[in-house]
């Protein structure tokens, strides 16, 4: 259940941004999670619901974007078919993960008083 | 919105971050890695299911390396220091990290443990992670390499079921191969599974009981040091 540790790190990061903008109210967090990140989206949502109480994220929505895994050849950029051996059939090079490993906080949307 | 003082409506401001959520752990891991590299300590993150034979492999490693290298280890478990005591008995300078309920080690736990160890005098430092095939893969610990212990009793399809763990592995140690005569396990099927989840699949078959394959594992470690 490392999802709790991820949410804890997420809330700490958001707190830093709120500290820099006194009075700001966090409305929405945009987070990207890769297919091969090892993070279960439902568990992450549950962890967020549990941990956000009495934090700067108490009233915030957690928007999760799932990123499918894409393996590519580092030489010819060919996409390796899902489920195939992770080696380029043309260049015989080990594939590299192009997308799908993300655990990324993309954006925080905050309400700030427009005085 | 405000009808009293005439101030404007609150504005929604997007703040772009684009940052790995575990960036704090990554920074601590980078700090550990610097220390390991400058002190010429080969740090190995040893992962695998509970009961995969991680401790047994390290015991066998200590016996085989006896006198040639100074070995150290931290051993992560939810409770007890049994593994660390086993490692100490085998001649490894060891310390337990009891995580309570955490399913993995993080860089802070390893860093804190190192403060209690004479780790700079070591040649190799093994981080025996909590037995778990998912969570430990996500946390960088400053290691030079990830090694996953996979026992022959766990089933041929384990790599395909746990791609997150195996995609980050530099080496898979297929353990308990002394049991192969008693099992219907196809080692070629395990190798094939690894090729589908590991870009550079490397596997060494070992037995912590008989010592078979251990010399190949020691050679792999030695090559990493040079």
What CATH calls the topology of chain B is Rossmann fold
Mean pLDDT of chain B: 93
Give the H and E element order of chain B: EHEHEHEHEEHHEHEH
Task: Tell me the overall shape of chain A.
Answer: elongated
Q: Supply the helix-strand structural class of chain B.
A: alpha/beta
- The CATH architecture of chain B would be 3-Layer(aba) Sandwich
The proportion of residues forming helix of chain A, as a percent range, comes to 10-25%
| Euclidean distance between termini CA atoms of chain B | 68 Å
Low-confidence stretches of chain A: none
Within CATH, the superfamily of chain B carries the name: P-loop containing nucleotide triphosphate hydrolases
What is the domain tally of chain B?
1
Poorly predicted runs of chain B: none
Sketch the major β-sheet of chain A: 3 strands, mixed
* DSSP helix fraction of chain B: 25-40%
- By DSSP (H or I, 4+ residues per run), the number of helices of chain B equals 8
CATH fold annotation of chain A: hypothetical protein PF0899 fold
Can you describe what's shown?
The complex is a heterodimer of chains A (115) and B (226). Chain A has helices at 3-19, 41-51, and strands at residues 25-34, 61-67, 70-72, 96-99, 103-112. Chain A has 115 residues and is an alpha+beta fold. Chain A has a single domain, classed as hypothetical protein PF0899 fold (2-Layer Sandwich), CATH 3.30.2320. In chain A, the strands form two sheets. A three-stranded mixed sheet of chain A has the order 2-1-5, covered by helices on one side. In chain A, strand 1 (25-34), helix 2 and strand 2 form a beta-alpha-beta unit. The longest helix of chain A has 17 residues, at 3-19. The radius of gyration of chain A is 18 Å and the shape is elongated. Chain B is of the alpha/beta class and 226 residues long. Chain B has a single domain, classed as 3-Layer(aba) Sandwich (Rossmann fold). Chain B is built from eight helices and eight strands. Chain B has helices at 23-38, 54-65, 82-89, 107-114, 158-161, 163-167, 187-197, 214-225; strands at 11-20, 42-48, 71-77, 93-98, 124-128, 145-151, 171-175, 203-205. In chain B, helix 2 (54-65) runs parallel beside helix 3 (82-89) and helix 2 crosses helix 8 (214-225). The radius of gyration of chain B is 21 Å and the shape is globular. The model of chain B has no long low-confidence stretch (mean pLDDT 93).
């Amino acid at each position: 259940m490392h999802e709790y540790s991820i949410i804890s790190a997420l809330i700490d990061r958001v707190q830093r941004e709120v500290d820099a903008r006194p009075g700001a109210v966090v409305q929405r967090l945009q987070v990207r999670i890769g297919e091969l990140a090892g993070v279960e989206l439902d568990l992450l949502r549950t962890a967020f619901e549990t941990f956000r109480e009495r934090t700067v994220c108490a009233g915030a929505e957690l928007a999760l974007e799932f990123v499918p895994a894409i393996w590519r050849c580092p030489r010819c950029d060919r996409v390796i078919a899902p489920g195939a051996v992770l080696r380029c059939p043309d260049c015989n090079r080990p594939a590299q993960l192009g997308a799908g490993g993300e655990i990324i906080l993309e954006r925080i949307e905050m309400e700030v008083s427009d005085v | 919105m405000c009808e009293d003082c005439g101030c404007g409506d609150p504005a929604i401001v997007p703040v772009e971050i684009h940052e790995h959520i575990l960036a704090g752990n990554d920074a601590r891991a980078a700090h550990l890695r610097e220390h390991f590299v400058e002190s010429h300590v080969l740090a190995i993150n040893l992962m695998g299911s509970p009961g995969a034979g991680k401790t047994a492999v390290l015991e066998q490693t200590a016996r085989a390396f006896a006198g040639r290298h100074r070995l150290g280890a931290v051993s992560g478990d939810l409770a007890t220091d049994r593994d660390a005591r086993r490692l100490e008995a085998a001649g490894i300078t060891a310390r337990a990290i009891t995580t309570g309920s955490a399913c993995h080690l993080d860089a802070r736990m390893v860093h804190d443990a190192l403060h209690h160890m004479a780790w700079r005098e070591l040649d190799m430092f093994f981080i025996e992670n909590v037995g778990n095939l998912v969570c430990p893969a996500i946390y960088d610990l400053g290691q030079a390499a990830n090694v996953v212990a996979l026992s022959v009793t766990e089933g041929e399809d384990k790599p395909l079921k746990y791609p997150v763990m195996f995609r980050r592995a530099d080496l898979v140690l297929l353990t308990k191969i002394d049991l192969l005569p008693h099992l219907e396990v196809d080692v070629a099927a395990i190798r094939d599974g690894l090729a589908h989840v590991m870009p550079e699949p490397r596997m060494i078959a070992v037995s912590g009981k008989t010592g078979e394959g251990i010399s190949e594992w020691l050679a792999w470690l030695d090559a990493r040091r040079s």
